[in-house]
Amino acid sequence: MDILVQANCKLGENPLWDTREACLYWTDIDGGTLHRFKDGGHDVIYSGEKVGGFTLQDDGSLLLFRVRDIARLVVGEEAVVLREVDEPGMARFNDVIAAPNGEVFAGTIGASKTSGGLYRVGLDGSVTKLFGGTGTANGMGFSPDLSAFYWTDSTARHIYRFAYDADTNALSARERVYAAAEDEGTPDGLAMAADGSFYSARFRGGAILHHAPDGEVLERLAVDAQNVSSAAFGGPNFDELFVTTAQGDGAGAGAIFHHKVGHKGRLEFRSRVLL
What we know:
Blueprint: E1 2-5, E2 12-18, E3 23-28, E4 33-38, E5 41-47, E6 53-56, E7 62-65, E8 69-73, E9 80-84, E10 90-98, E11 104-110, E12 116-121, E13 127-134, E14 137-142, E15 148-153, E16 158-165, E17 170-179, E18 186-192, E19 198-203, E20 207-211, E21 217-222, E22 228-234, E23 240-245, E24 256-260
Antiparallel strand pairs: 1-24, 2-3, 3-4, 4-5, 6-7, 7-8, 8-9, 10-11, 11-12, 12-13, 14-15, 15-16, 16-17, 18-19, 19-20, 20-21, 22-23, 23-24
């Protein structure tokens, strides 16, 4: 796996490819910055409050999920707060993903090991708690046929699959499809492939693991950074995996990596919150 750019991120996260602009975005959570890689160049497009995760909005803006608010960012302008969020036991927002209907599933990190959870943000900006009981709600993805939703509980080191109803945006029938061993690192961010398999980052594990839909490990992709945080598909043919990392051991710590995996990813949806 090759380095795309050595961004020296403190905690790189949430890589997201913009097909309209042909560029890659990501957040450095602990650095309080948002980054863009476009046309071979790297720039910082935001500096301010920590951004735990973000989505691409249908109007081209970015929807930022920060510590205790949701904000809108147009590149080149200041972020505008859309609504404050003050959920009991919440430390900050973490990984997020846009749903097919434009709503957003948003994970949180809890102030304790059980006060984090998963929330749904409606088109009107309403915030509904779906469940709690975790310290760190992490990587998510929709199966290509939209029958299943994957979610990562980093605290328990488990990856779960839910039955998903795209008409109602409801989750049900939760089942564990993978339990990580202590020595392989912590499951973190997740990227879905078009064939239904998925890639899961391993924080403190120096790798991306390729899983079958049922959780079986198909392949291990080594990364020259111990703290591998997330992955996303992108590139001209949507067959490149872009990987974020954090500071720690490894020559590529804090860098963004990329690697052609030989098959295409599933295109991420765009949010339409408060448009």
